[in-house]
Amino acid sequence: MLKKKKDAEGQSGKVMWKTLGFMLKTAWQHRPSLIFVYLVRLVADVASKLSSIILPKFLLDEIVLFAGGAELSQHIRNAAFYAGLIVVINLAASVLNSISANCKATISEWFNEYFERMLSDHAMQMDFEHTEDPKALDQIGKAKEGISWYSGGVIGILDPAYNVAMNLTVLAGVVAIIIVTCPLLLPLQFVSLIFITVLNARVNKIEAESYKELAKINRVFSYVLWNLADFQYGKEIRMYESADMMSHKAELLGMDLTSVWRSNQYKQRKSSWKMDIINALRDGISYFYIGYLAIKRTITIGDFSMCISAASSLYWSLNGIVISVQEIMKKCNYASEYLKFLDYPAAMPKGSKAVTGEQHIVEFCHVSFRYPRTEKDVLHDINLKISSGEHLSVVGLNGAGKTTFIKLLCRLYDVTEGEILIDGVNIKEYSDEEYRKLFAVVFQDFQLFAFSLKENIVLGGEEDAERVKEVLTLSGLYDEAMKLKNGMDTMLYKGFDEDGTDLSGGQRQKMAISRALYKDAPIVILDEPTAALDPVAEYEIYRQFHSLVGGKTAIYISHRLSSCKFCDRIAVFADDTIKEYGTHEALVRKTDGIYAKMFAAQAQYYVENA
Ligand code: ADP
Known about the structure:
This protein is of the alpha/beta class. The protein has helices spanning 2-30, 33-67, 72-125, 134-150, 153-181, 185-229, 234-239, 243-295, 301-342, 402-409, 432-436, 453-458, 465-474, 478-483, 505-519, 535-549, 584-589, 594-609, and strands at residues 362-369, 379-386, 391-396, 417-422, 425-426, 439-442, 523-527, 553-557, 569-574, 577-582.
């Protein structure tokens, strides 16, 4: 038990030093002026604190001497000098403090934005698998809150570190004064401090525990609130009258948050009362002891005043150190969630090989796959070879595993068994960045961003207005785009721009297809790219695509089997595997086959409709 506690303490000490080191390094790398600001403050604060303890003693002693009948002019001159010195030092300190506070505020704002940028950059680089892992999502939430308002980031952590340095310097001066004038005060202050430290540690522990609980509730709470206000969800919320349901959910979560806060406050209050009582007792005993020394004339009236200030300063410096160390530990603990997130282990091992050449052969060898945190394979023993330039159609009922097959090929997940080879090399050996250059994919649930039409097409590529025009023409969207007020520069959605546009389902799909064409990658994958298109537009897309994709390898997932005629081979997915494989003609001939039946059913539908 004791060993466990010691290990935990050692662990939190390590976390503190690591995080503190990280913050200092980050400050030094990006805003070194911050360290200079702290140094100036240190000189100003120490001078102001020590002078306001020592100088009043001399001032008071001059007054007492004068009251005792000494010569007037000399003592007035001395008293005026000490009073003037106190005023000048305090004024200089307060001017320097206010300048440094302004500098700190600007720097703090910069660091807030910096950490947000780093967080979102890292979240975007994370393995895809983590994006649906509740643990990883919780970690993002903890990192976000931990580095911002729970720890206060660089300033939030360097401020208490500065307080420790400043209080230690003041403490050295104050201890020297007390040893010379009223030495018994030292043990009294230390004893009271031990009690205060224990109580304060308890308060911090309560807060840290509630933080973990709050992070989880906050993530759901923000999601529900965000949905309520988000333009994209507007239609669902109105048409399915879900606003009340969402509000109710938010209200319940809000109640959970309040109850965690309330119980946290109640537990903390008990400890703060005890701290108030200890403080009052200590002050009473100190005053009595120093007063006793003055009455016995062991010390002068000036010393009496200096001792009172020194005793209070000793306590506040020690207290400041302890509280600041605890604050650093607490804040480093919160901020370390950010470091944990930056170090979040990769879900998949990373390779480093570059993909070379223009022609690529794709092979699935005995591939089986089950999603993380699930029990059953969704794909089992998949074997398939796609030659360079081949057009493969992937068909099957909903849930047959077609999209999963694509996700595995794109290495959004790693196979559970078997291997996927490109040009004879296991895809795990390629560098992610290089590997993803191979594919231009239109996912079933593709996303368009609230950027301009052009930006949505170019995304990470080099901007070439002519090519944007070309791909928009190929997908059949160019004429419609040109009718918009700002043409290709029109913003999508109205969230950030009144002149923004909201596209129809078909137009959105054409945008996604344009984006894939723009990437000009050697392997093109379309996962149900035409589901939202009318038959004429669909026919046009396939006709154009076939000639456009031309020599490239292409994989189409489609429910419209008429589109399969355009492909060299068809793979029919059923019962977690590839059940049929061959050309359209060969598969249609197998009259009791899955493909033949599906094709006949659809053909009949079209004939009936015609
Ligand atoms: P298809 O594209 O053929 O409609 P999918 O590949 O999308 O089928 O899905 C295959 C199976 O995998 C389905 O049973 C689906 O519920 C399951 N599945 C899909 N995505 C996930 C996921 N992220 N986590 C767990 N199961 C999933």
